[in-house]
C-alpha cells in the first residue's frame, strides 16, 4: 500500500472515530436529559470537538435520530455476532433478535419513537418512492441468512423465497415496534406481540 493510501486510510479511520464519538455523546445526552433538552453545544462539549465539527457530521440535531437505527443494527453484530454464527433453531434465533430490539426500545420509548419517525421520513427518494435504507438492508440480510440456514436445517420450507420471507419478518418486527412505541405498553406486552407474529410466520394461515 502506498503512503498516499495509508494516509487516506488513517484519515478515514479518524473520521469514523470522530463521528462515532459525536454520536455516542449525543446518544448519552439524549438518554440522560431528553432529546429536546439537549443542545448541540452540549454534544460538542461532551465529544470534545467544536460545534462546527458536529455539524460536519450531523448537519442538524434531527440527523442524530435516524443514526440511532443504524446504531441498533450495528449493535446486533457487536453483541450477538455475525448472523452466520448464531446458535439454536430458526425460530429461536429470530426470537432472540426480536427480544434484542424490544430491550433496546424499552430503554427510552420516547427517544426511539422519534428515531423511528425520522427514519421513516428518510425512506422516500427524490421521486417519492420508498427505498430500503442501509440499516434495513443489513437487517433484512441477517434475517435472510437465518432463514436460509433454517432451510438447510429443515426448519424452513425449501420452496420459500428467503429474501421475500426476510422482508416479511422485518416488516412485522418494525410495524410491531412502531405501534408499541406510539401506543405505549409494557415490555412483556411487546414481547408477546412479537412472539405472536412469529407464530403466524412459522405456522402460516392455511388450515
Walk me through the structure.
- The protein is mainly alpha-helical.
- The chain has two domains: 1-59, Arc Repressor Mutant, subunit A; 61-203, Tetracycline Repressor, domain 2.
- Helix content is 74%, strand content 0%.
- The protein contains nine helices and no strands.
- It has helices at 3-33, 40-47, 51-57, 64-80, 90-107, 109-121, 134-153, 162-183, 187-203.
- The chain is globular, with a radius of gyration of 19 Å.
- It starts with a helix and ends with a helix.
- The model has no long low-confidence stretch (mean pLDDT 86).
CATH domain fold name of the largest domain: Tetracycline Repressor, domain 2
Considering the protein shown, what is the CATH homologous superfamily of the largest domain? Answer: Tetracycline Repressor, domain 2
Low-confidence stretches: none
The tally of strands reads 0
| Second rung of CATH, namely the architecture of the largest domain | Orthogonal Bundle
Judging from the principal axes of the Cα atoms, what is the shape?
Answer: globular
CATH secondary-structure class of the largest domain: Mainly Alpha
The total of helices stands at: 9
Summed up, the domain count is 2
Mean pLDDT: 86
N- and C-termini, Cα separation: 61 Å
* Oligomeric form: single chain
Question: How large a portion of the residues is in β-strands, by DSSP E?
Answer: under 5%
Largest sheet: none
The radius of gyration computed from the alpha-carbon positions, rounded to a whole number of angstroms, is 19 Å
Helix/strand structural class: mainly alpha
Order of helices and strands: HHHHHHHHH
What is the helix content? over 70%
Amino acid at each position: 500500500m502506498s503512503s498516499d493510501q495509508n494516509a487516506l486510510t488513517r484519515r478515514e479511520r479518524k473520521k469514523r472515530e470522530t463521528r462515532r464519538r459525536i454520536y455516542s455523546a449525543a446518544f448519552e445526552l439524549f438518554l440522560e436529559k431528553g432529546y429536546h433538552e439537549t443542545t448541540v453545544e452540549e454534544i460538542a462539549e461532551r465529544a470534545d470537538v467544536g460545534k462546527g465539527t458536529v455539524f460536519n457530521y450531523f448537519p442538524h440535531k434531527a440527523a442524530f435520530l435516524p443514526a440511532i437505527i443504524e446504531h441498533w443494527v450495528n449493535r446486533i453484530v457487536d453483541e450477538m455476532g455475525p448472523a452466520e454464527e448464531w446458535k439454536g433453531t430458526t425460530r429461536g434465533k429470530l426470537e432472540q433478535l426480536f427480544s434484542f430490539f424490544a430491550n433496546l426500545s424499552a430503554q427510552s420509548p420516547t427517544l426511539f419513537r422519534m428515531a423511528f419517525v425520522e427514519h421513516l421520513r428518510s425512506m422516500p427518494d427524490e421521486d417519492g418512492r420508498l427505498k430500503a435504507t442501509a440499516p434495513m438492508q443489513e437487517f433484512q440480510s441477517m434475517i435472510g441468512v437465518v432463514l436460509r440456514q433454517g432451510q438447510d436445517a429443515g426448519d424452513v420450507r425449501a420452496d420459500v423465497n428467503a429474501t421475500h420471507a426476510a422482508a416479511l419478518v422485518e416488516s412485522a418486527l418494525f410495524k410491531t415496534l412502531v405501534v408499541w412505541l406510539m401506543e405505549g405498553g409494557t415490555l412483556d406486552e411487546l414481547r408477546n406481540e412479537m412472539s405472536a407474529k412469529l407464530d403466524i410466520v412459522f405456522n402460516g394461515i392455511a388450515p
